[in-house]
# Entry
Amino acid sequence: MSRLEGAAGRTRNTRNKRNARKFGGYWEGSGDISGSFRAFRLFRVFRVLSCLGLFALLCASCRQDMQDQPKYKPLAPSDFFSDGRSARQLVKGTMPYSPEAKATPPITDLSKAPTLPFALTPQVMDRGQERFNIYCAPCHGRLGYGNGMVVQRGFRAPPSYHIDRLRQAPVGHFYDVMTNGFGAMPSYADKVAPDDRWSITAYIRALQLSQRATLNDAPPAVRSQLEQEGQTR
Ligand code: HEC
# Structure
């Protein structure tokens, strides 16, 4: 390459010429410049084709394994099992897994359950109050009238817990609403563990009682104090 051409002058043409010189003699056994060009072009086509071939080979080998493995798609029939199904029935007593849940009950309809599945203690009630104020009060309000802050900001208003229908509903109904959601209310199963759902239910029952309680519902120690306050008012 002449000095004049320099680095900036290294055009495609000069590169071709250089290559042509390099390969011309080898391919054609002569110094003829046009023959060298042809040879060089051939060489380039060959190079591109071999790259493409390699690429196609790579792509083809990627699709082999998972794509073509023998498998059953969901609900596909099978003649391997006598019942004709490819999927097996769940083993009896299979429980849904939830990382938070300590004792996840089996999937049964608990919406009619009349009592809590464990003893009601002050600790359960405290826990229920705490969880209720975190997860339910934003919509249902701290007293359960359905006027929480989220509702005041425009979310659909839930019914008050103090209407007759919900006062008479079994505890299981509250558990069920938290577990599966209800109408516009989403499920809280992923936020509130099963035991906590029962605790919240107990607290809702306490809220319901608190709004209709009579003097006789108050413990004797508090009763006289309330009576005095009632008289002074
Ligand atoms: C984002 C707001 C929101 C939160 C938070 C929320 N709820 Fe609700 N809830 C609603 C709405 C809205 C309805 C009414 C749904 C409908 O009727 O479509 C409702 C309905 C209910 C009902 C009445 C179902 C019936 O039979 O009419 C119960 C019980 C209930 N929620 C319990 C809870 C409990 C317990 C929590 C806390 C774990 C909770 N909700 C958290 C919005 C909420």
The first helix runs from residue 12 to 28. The pocket of heme C is lined by residues 135-136, 138-140, 150, 155-156, 158-159, 174, 177-178, 182-185, 188, 192, 200 (CB under 6 Å). The CA atoms of residues 114 and 193 lie 19 Å apart.
